[in-house]
Amino acid sequence: MGTKRKDLDDKRVNVQEHKNDNERNICVVPTEVDGWLEKVRKLEEKAASISDDAGSCFNITRRHKLGRKAFNIIEEINSLIQGNDRINWTDRRIPPAKVNSKKTSTSTPSSHHNDFPSRERTFMEALGQLQPDHKSRIIALCGMGGVGKTTMMENLKKDAEEKNFFNMIVKVAIGEKTDPIVIQQSVADFLGIDLKESDKGARAINLRKSFEAASDGGKKKILVILDDVWEFLDLNDIGLSPLPNHGVGIKILLTSRIRDVCIRMEVDSIFDVETVEDHEAQSFFHQCVQIPEGGDLDFDLHVIGNDIANRCHGLPIAIKTIAGFLKCYRSDKWVWENTLSSLKNKEVEEVVYKIFEISYNHLQNEEIRSTLLLCGVFPEDFDTPREDLVRYGWGLRLFKNVHTIREARNRLNTCIEQLINANLLIQSQLVNHVKMHDLVRAFVLKVCSNSEHASIVGDISKWTEENTSEFCKRISLTCTGISEFPRNLNFPNLSLLKLMHGDESLKFPEHFYEGMKKLQVIAYDVMEYPLLSRSLACSTNLRTLCLHRCLLMYDCYPIGDLLNLEVLSFAYGILRKLPSTVRNLKELKLLDLTGCVDLIIDDGVLKNLINLEELYVKVGSTRGHKKAIRFTDSICIELAELSKNLFALEIEFFDNNALPKNMSFKKLERFKISLGCFLKDDDGPNRHSYENTLMLVIDKCELLDSRMNQLLEKTEVLHLQVNDVNNLGDGLVESLHHQRSSFYNIRVLKICKCDNLRYLFTVCVANDLTKLERLTILECPVLETLVGGERGELGVIKFQALKFLSLGKLPKLMSLCNVGDAIELPQLEELILDGLPNFTSIYPDYYKLTTSSISSDISTMQSFIKKEVVIPKLKKLHVSNMENLKEICPCEFGSSEEVNDSVVNLFLSNPMSLLHHLEELKVEHCGSVEVLFNIDLRCVGKNEEVGSCLRSIQVWDAENLREVWRIKGANDDDLSFNGFQAIESIEIKKCKRFRNVFTPTTTNFDMRALAHLKIKDCGENEKDDEMVNSKQEQEIDVAFSSSLIHTFHNLQDLNIENYKGAEVEVVFEIESPSSRELATTPQSNQQPLLLPYLQYLVVVDMKRTSHVWKCNWNKFLIPQKQQPKGSSSSFHNLTIIYLWRCKSIKYLFSPLMAKLLSNLKEVDIWNCDVIEEVVSNRDDEAEELVASTNTRTILLPHLDELNLRRLPNLKRIGGGSGAKRGGKEISSTTPIHDQSKEEE
Description:
Radius of gyration: 34 Å
Number of helices: 28
Shape: globular
Mean pLDDT: 78
Largest sheet: 26 strands, parallel
Number of strands: 51
């Protein structure tokens, strides 16, 4: 059985790592994975119990029973192994449109929009209309170019994401030329779907179906952003007309310069983004000029600057650009005066052009100007890769006096920084990418229109006979929907040809390249069958050939005739074999075969590339392929010879590839190398980073033979899985007695399955890791501490840059350090702890620490964060599989004066101080945890303001958890406790002994931000004596009484499933308001609204629940005639109700309650055995109020869907008034067989 358990554990480790990689790379994790891992965990516990119960070998009967159990477990293991084989890992990217549901908003107002106070009102009104419950479906930001529409849109998007307005956000840049096919593809990319149809209408139908599926009948909220719309866009083309699900849950935000376009698109609200006011323009200008701290601008220059700002016509982009230029001349008055003179008496378009022209002409040199013009060949609103600019620039000889690709890259990066500082380029959200504002691009294209820089940029329709010109130097075209090129092309001075998105129907003329003899750069991107004919040899000056994501099924041998070629890239192309004629390219400096899956390289090809400087031959693992480029022993020998001159190398050795030997890395400065595994790609915004990376899954002897350890000093990302090392540096480097260790450049470090590792760092190595930001340590069975070594070493150990720490499956770990005086983690924001059995709490109990001399059980106390550990900025804490963990934050029984000064300096006396920065707490599979927060209010003080950022609490499978909060020192006189006012989400799941989130002792809590509450599979029917006798845990028959509801006034969705612990009979009990509720109501003479923001209510598997709402209407409901017209009411935002498998409920709500639910759209009742009516007045005691509803008043006027399934005792729907479904009234006396009913 031991062998089988090991096999299963290996499978578990692989599945867990695959899951972690997919979550990190934003890829889909199969739904069955979590269930499979949970079954493995439970089976391992069962198997371990057999080992513990083995007993005497002479007890034949006992051993026979254990043998039968072992046999059954082996069968279960075999079944789980087979189940693992059936898991379908697609490694498909999660659609970019999906908003991270874990991201929670801040409770403080956003500052995204505060650059210009005059726009505050516009921003807030637009944000208000983006709220899901607002009636507006299409809204627009309208204003002239450069006024800041896109900036405001981005800020609205950020706020909507932070406030969780939407589940998905689709953002598409439209641009001046509206191409429905391109727009459809952009939308499809965000939704994560394939559009295989070629017909525009068929593609639109596919998109519409996708939007309908994504919105799930309006339950999921979707925002579609259409940026920079120049002309009428038929929303039907992108599946949004008419809006799916009658527009429920879907909103459109567009930006446009043209108001008529917004009107034609039937926008509900148009928000004019006006130019900024003069004083704002002046303030923004001086801010952008960046006066040095403590310095001051000459008065005359200040006056001139104000005049320049005023002449920018209130356009932020113009102000920022001209200020960026002038900040280099802060002492040159004549430059400022000349600039002011250039801007006088000019209209706005002229001013904008003149500003860009001034900045362009004053760029330091021609290289910078050429780099800007080169950026113009990329599509509008495109994230331009810097690496493409390097390779194109090299081919065009843009960079003077550079002799290597490395030097060209450094020069290019210098030029880009200059252009960003001049506000002519924008830093992209993608690492190593840049973007260009459309006004700057328009200026660049105008410059490119003259004969000196003549270019054709756009779609292929611009390539006409009239455009054919002997002066044209650059062509960049999108080929979507085009079947052939014009014939008899003649571009004798063409130096760059860039073609994109051509399908298999595109036909090239036979002698396509004969009229392009001066070509220096060819770049094809996503071309099905790019032409590589013999006529290509006519381009004898060709230096760069990039064939990215191209289908290369035809003969590529003509490439071998391009003897002057220096850059060759087949990245992510479908290419089975590298043409053997590549061996002829002796001038080649860069060869890129990234992502060429299962590529075959002939022996002898690489060794002929004697001038090669950079080689990229990695496949990576995120594309779902598991076949690396093949390396024979001969090729490894060639690689060893090549390595002597390589500056850059990306390569993987695994999958039966021979391991490298005798490699030389003296010149290597840029690398990503793996031994024994794939190079794992990051599919996030950092996926294009070029950090030096080593991933080593190998034996120590093989590592030393490969000489990869020579690269450790240059390594920034290190993944280490090496046997036979006792600590980092043990035999991996030649010497650790230098002035600093060999690991000082590491930013990311992952240590996994190092079986002999007892401690990771010495004090010397730890203090040298000044750049380390992320540290992960997994499955090191004998690791006892992170920092160890000789006892008696003194001093503070400080990981000054560490932001992320993950420790998992470390059964022997006892501490973070066992040497030194203290360990400081001043920047740590995220802490993940998994499978650390030796810890009983996360934070220390300082009271016990200070009274340890009289504590009898102090030896059994083991906190992860000891008094010597300083973590002041922790934001996320995830704890799982810590079987002995009993609490997160221990209670402080004494006041702050009782704690000695050395402890106070680390943490304040009360654990509430730990919440100053903590935003997210997640606890999973910690069976001993009884309470999360052990709080003594006597240490906090009455009404003390406790700064808390905690926003999310999630607890899964903590079977002994009784309470979220254990409160001591509670006093009814306390009006409010503000320690948890930022919490937005609470989820408690599979906690058997859990009773209730809110108890009478938590009524003092201010939880104004709580929006999401879910309790599932909690409690147990059997109650032990302790639970019965405990006053605090008396059986509760009401989930949320009116005395508690005010605590979470802003709740948006409530999900209660299989909640047995409290034996809940009533979900909401509503009575007259207490004095506390009235005190918190804005106008105390009015009834407080109960849950006015609640939108979703899910009640499932509540066996004893007899009422969803139980109301004393005489005390609670204001008669309809007394309510102000149009005023809100309790529960008035409730939109969807799910009631499933509730065996004691006879009706859902009364007519009086139905009057409050005026916005209810969907009711779904399923498998409720005793329910007789949906609406019933059987329990209403307020006769006068009930009588007032017995008119023909339509209840539930917005109800669109009523699903009634498996309800054997249902007799009627209405119970005291009319209801409306699908436009039809439902009478209270109509029998059920005459009413709408859907049977399953």
